Amino acid sequence: MDDLHEAPAGRNLIERRVRRAWGSAVASLHRTRHLGWVDLLVLAGLAGLLFGAQRVAHEWAGRLQPTVHIDLSPLALPRYTLYSLSRGLLAYGLSLGFTLVYGYWAAKDAIAERVLIPLLDILQSIPILGFMPGLVIALVAAFPSRNVGLELAAVIMMFTGQVWNMTFSYYHSLRAVPEALQEVGSVYRYDWWQRLKWIELPFATIGLVWNSMMSMAGGWFFLMINEAFVLGSRDFRLPGIGSYMSVAVAHGDLRAMAWAVLAMTLMIVGLDQFLWRPAVVWAQRFRAEESASEERATSWFLEWLSHSWVLRLARHAWRRRPKRHAHARSAATAHAEGAAPALAAGTAAVAASPPPPVAARQPERPVPMWARPVSALAFALLLGVLLLGAWRVAHLLRPVSGAHWLGLVGAALTTLARVLASTMLGTLWTLPVGLAIGLSPRLSRVLQPVAQVAASFPAPMMFPVVIAGLHAAGVTLGWGSILLMLLGTQWYILFNVIAGASSIPADLREAARGYRLSLVQRLRTLYAPAVFPYLVTGWVTAAGGAWNASIVSEYVSFHGQVLTAPGVGSSISIAAEHADFPTLAAGVLVMSAIVVLFNRTVWRRCYQIAEERFSLNR
Amino acid sequence: MTVTSAPPASGLLCEARGVSQEFKQPSGQALRVLEDISLGVHPREVVALLGPSGCGKSTLMRILAGLIRPTSGEVRYRDEVLTGLNPGVAIVFQSFALFPWMTVEQNVRNVLVARSLADDEITRRVADVLRAVGLRGFEHTYPRELSGGMKQRVGMARALSVQPELLFMDEPFSQVDALTAEGLRAEVVDLWSTHDRNPSSILMVSHDIKEVAYMADRIVVMGANPGRIRTIVENRLPRPRDYRSPELLQLVDQLHDIITGSEMPDVPEAPAPTVAVPASAQPFEPLPDAGPSEIVGLLEYLDARGGSDELFHIVADTHREFGQVITVVKAAEMLDFVDTPKRSVLLTPNGRRFVAAAGPDRRAIWRAQLLEMRLFRQIAEVLERQEEHKVERDFVLETIAMAMPQENYERVFHTLVVWAHRGDLFDYREEDETLVLGVSATPTAAPGATPPSSA
Predict the structure, then answer these.
(1) ipTM over 0.85
(2) Does any CB of chain A come closer than 8 Å to the CB of residue B183?
(3) Cβ count within 10 A of residue A201
(4) pTM
(5) Residue B158: its chain A contacts at CB < 8 A?
(6) A333 lies within 8 A of chain B by CB
(7) Domain A63-287+396-613 maps to which CATH number in 1.20.1250.20, 1.10.287.70, 2.40.50.100, 1.10.3720.10?
(8) What is the pLDDT of residues B94-128, one digit of tens each?
(9) CA–CA separation, A28 and A24 (whole Å)
């Protein structure tokens, strides 16, 4: 570290910090002790939340109706938006809970890890319709007269669209905690909970927040299916923006469609401003790198909340809450206490083998004492469920003939071609645009938030417009579906290119400019190689999204008629609609197999090349 | 745990007995990093582990702390065999290892919370320890806003807060600027020297000779490949010590001599083997991990100083760690460019010829010297025999692993490639992971012969 250079800036910062702390202490004495308008708004917001929760609860407890009537008047939209939002947030809560448990389990138990991580990879590749029939039938059967079952099914389907990348991120963070921090945890004898709370969770937070944003966006993608779907003879519908849009499309009601798009946009912008921005700002405190140079994110909402007297009071009360404390142990007993876990480890070792002189277990993956049996039990249970599931699926698949299988594989290859075509098309436009944005701080400041909102918007809601355009141009859905896939997945590539471009070291860019490389030369020698590793990540995510999107883009209803393009996505959609479960299972299986296979071969190879030849960190 | 607790019967707070440590290499082969180490730490002393990088001194410290379980041998704390973490130890880390998401105060407080101390006791101790290391006023600062020296103060506060009997410090000042480090060392000694308080003893890892001469009561000089104790030097200089006192400088000199003596022994010139010894029976010379540019740099340096200099002048002049300088010197000696009688390094006739030569000739001399070494000769011969004059990386790796089981073969391979490249003997192509014969090292080019000027 260049201390001579750093020292003055560092000292300045400290001074500023101290002054700020001191200043706020003084200011809080003078601050007015009465309610301000911010407090009124905060209270109003709280009341609104309560009211909304009550409405949602009412809807959940409501009677299950064969077909819910969807009111196409724009006045009904706020209510529908609330319902959709509550489903999305509930699904997110579920995803977060699942992530924290599953990721922790996979990171801490070396044996379970070997099954859990590949399983996650497979689950990730299963399209949403693969989960739907089982979930809906089981949950509706569980709550035959109330809405709860159907609501739960919708929430869980949304969950399957959100959860996987969050879990991956959390797991990878847990495995990547720096060695030195882990050693601190060992030397100062943090127990598993302190380790989690002070080391692991903080370290994983930034990744988790960013992946949460992506997940939430991904969760909206199938909103229209989640809230309105046909399963055999039954037409399930839940009030929400998705079903509103579905009905509007079915009726060809352009005005209602526009209202739905507006409501969706407002909801996404609102979520971004009131939830994700503050979350990102809050997560900045967990930055692991110690430089203070990076540009800090800000949130007007957080700033604004900090003026609230009510919230300050609540925070104060929370800080002052009586902490439950185990009997305080004196410094002297701490000595004996230190020896206790060591002794425990020793006895465990003795039980396993004739007395080894040294501890059998290195404190490598510290876990609570009860964790081992619990983990083993859960693992056995999981294996049992997997085996049972495999057996059931095998049973289900018996009527599927060889020719049928072959047909599905052929269809899957057609879809694969579409997926790759859409990924390539996406790269074609996002590469130059992403480079332009990423290389210019000004552009990225303005455009990145816009792109983020655009990316969160569920593309299927735009399909009717695009299909109308394609119809007018005389393009068949076989080709058109490529465009529909692109609509949803191009953003992943764009974001990654932007991230890659903005991470190109300044000295390399200056060198390229200094040696007067032409634009083409710069692209070939610097930008393309530097962005490549990011591009690969973008491709993998985009292709995954495109596979999922094939379900809705190879099979679309438009103006009351259904358009299909041959492919495994439409095969699955048709099978689901006709409740043809063997074909549905076979289609899902074929799709998952091809996705996993493609990931393991082509994409992994790309990752390797990126790592070996184009990494800027080596 | 206070210092007043009864002294252990053996008189040792902490002890390693016959400790060896092996790590698995990617191929599955074991790499021995520590061999048969026995070392004890008495109450009220400062012990320093001194040695070049790669001698396993940090590993030894982690074994004594109970962070790593040794492959064989045992560790004792107060006469009891250690079965887990050492309960009397706190560590100050080279990289500080502070939690960036916690303030200075929280970084210290949390280790006390982990010990389930009472709230008011924690508050009192945090305040005490922050004052003791001079961090008052910085309680609510985040580590990223602090300089390296201040960060290490936080690391020290955190370690001292648990009142450890043994304070372990892993190269604590190597990432702190020199001036700050000097002050911090004095402060550490001050904190330690109040005998009614913990820490009772300090174990520190260092590669800085002056640092250990200033701080330690006993200096454990370690050697590498595999790591072992060369000798232990008692340092009875009275405290407070002065970096420039003649006694301290004399000790530094003595340590220099020990290190040069053990790292570069003056072996009597072996008579050239007149009887042909079967080649496979001869051991390979291990390659020091030094790049050609460093070696050439050393030769130029010596040339500029009339052809010879003292080793530790070079260390002081180049601001390099002595371990690294010794590695470079060893490499140059292996190429027969320098000779190292006692503590001085001087250019051999070969070395003089090299320095005087122009680019292409240097290349040829370098190549000739490489071919004096068996490993290079053997690979060059294989390359010549091969039809397309290339061999795969894995083959060479295997050769190295067989011939030098003690070495990290990936590193040796890297050194091999860069040395060979400098002499244009052979080249490594990363795309297909093969070694190919160099451009000018055509099969006919005899060793030593000047090739037609290669561009």
Answers:
(1) no
(2) no
(3) 18
(4) 0.78
(5) 188
(6) no
(7) 1.10.3720.10
(8) 988 898 888 999 999 999 998 888 999 999 999 99
(9) 6
